[in-house]
Fold each of these.
Amino acid sequence: MEKLSYQHHGSEEVLGFDLSVAPNELVAILGPSGVGKSTLLSLIAGFENPVSGSIKFNGKELNRLSPSERPITSLFQEHNLFAHLSAEENIGLGIHPGLRLTSQDKEQITQALDDVGLKGLGKRHPAELSGGQRQRVALARCLVRRRPILLLDEPFSALDQDLRKEMLRLVKNLHHNHGLLTLMVTHLKEDADAIADRVVHLT
């Protein structure tokens, strides 16, 4: 991101961002509420448009690409699982929105469930899973999309401390095992210190 600026509709305040992230780096973005952490991720993902500046990945300009065209997958505090679908079907949506899945796709889903510690639970529906397990399903859905950039917008903030630490360890392992570039927004310094190669402070 180079000289990126953003202005909320109806606001005179202009937010500015300038950040370079190395391949396979895990960066935590730390700061108080309202400072623009989530806005930054929305700009990178393409959900918001900057006033000026550029977003590049591997030398390619991303600004003109729609969210679905960008090499990015995101995980938020709300897991956005469909209650009427099983865990494996919810994960399958990351591969094909119509769930028209090949045998290879199904093998990939099984592997993703194993990677996030949910082996054997693919047939369960969200109501049959704990809060932490539902976030694991959402994380597995991110993995099967096979995008090189993972954005995390405080996805574990609603979990208790022990479970949050467990999920952070899982993310760190998956980040390294899958060779991802990961940006995680948090307002908790202990979470940033526990997971990140580098911490960026927004003020």
Amino acid sequence: MFPGRVVGPRAGRPERHNGGDDPVHQPRLPPGRPTGRRAELLAAAVEVVADAGLRGLTHRAVDARAGLPEGTCSAYLRTRGALLVALAEYVGRALEERVEALGDDLAGCAGDPVAVSAAVTELTVGWVREPSLVRAQAELSLEAARQPELMEVFERWRDGLLRTVRQLGERAGRPKPQDDAVVIVAAVEGLLVTAVRLPAAGREPFLRGAVPLLVHALHEAR
């Protein structure tokens, strides 16, 4: 999944270049999807957190998972706090992209519970096909309750999901679309965490049964 070990001019330290992926010359990336070595490190960090939780997230563990020389991660993200925030941004952006796609899919089907449940089901099924991402999101969400800088990152993608669901409720004429959105998003988060605890073969069938139940129950409660 990740490239093999890179040999630099000094043992255990990443080779430096003038620009490009050089952590010294690389400017701070704007919000969005990271690229190059930084993306490689954050993808490895997702796997570390998924396997070992946040207690296992260290610069050394990320280097080892990525197959890179020790010291590479700390060259890009010097403190554990910086690593946590960058990881939260990476995971949050991946989720946000899927939420944006859901909004496009739901634009014309507000009054059709079958179409809505199909779109939301595909969203959740797509997420559990990347179980490490869901596990990392769950771990970081709990940590965000204790660290305001992480909460700010996660609120961005969660607000996008709330907005998409609220707009759907508004188009369907729901009396309290914001309240509905909060309940639906919380329920979806719970379904995702439940799904990734199941054996891999059971995750998709579980969601294909549970999500339509949720959507239709809300539709009938009008």
Amino acid sequence: MSLTGKHVDISHIIERVYRDNGFDLEIKYDEVIEWTWDVISLIGAPKTFVDKVTDGSQGMPQPIIIENYRGNLPVDLHSVYLARDYDTKMPMILKGTTYLRDNEQLFVKESQYTYTLNDSYIFTSFEEGEVELHYKAFPTNNLGMPLVPDDIKFVMATQSYIAERIGLRLWMQDHISKQKYDKLESERLWYIGAAQTRGVTPSIDELEGMKNRYLRLRIHPDLHDTSFIYSMEKERLILHNNAGR
């Protein structure tokens, strides 16, 4: 079973932590937020994150403005999928070095746009322009609070991670026994592993797309030029009847 794309607020998970473990101490909300980001990153499944494109359409972020070969990366960025020039839609290539030429312009080969990522910035081979970045973002609500996939394994992974963090603090202060902390730790390890497996389990439609990507009638080495738009479409062999010619 694949993830549905729905999410739950961390306030729901905090209630579960207190209800199921009987903690009577107060924890700070910013600590819970940080722990939630930690567990989402530890699970690391791509489906845990939200797809965003900086094209300004349908509530998406605006294109990244490039000035003097540099632009600001989105604050909710987790990982980059693809980048291309916003105006020409020409795909960009991730450059393997940050070295600059003597004229301080990035070297461009065969008219390809290139970029590098460093210190919360994207550095491009063109001085000015806009970048359309397809990236994975941390899921948040309209207040910027983290969201967790609405799947019991992800909910339990987050719940058990927060409970284990609280339990570790209580154990270090000699408020609970080592046996009780070990119980919290074992649940955290179990549910994070379960969430990792769920996060990489493809749906039937995803499997069909994967099959179409690898079973090709001919090799397509330049799919990057079209931003992989057609990479999962099925190819059909059309035979023309030349009889009578």
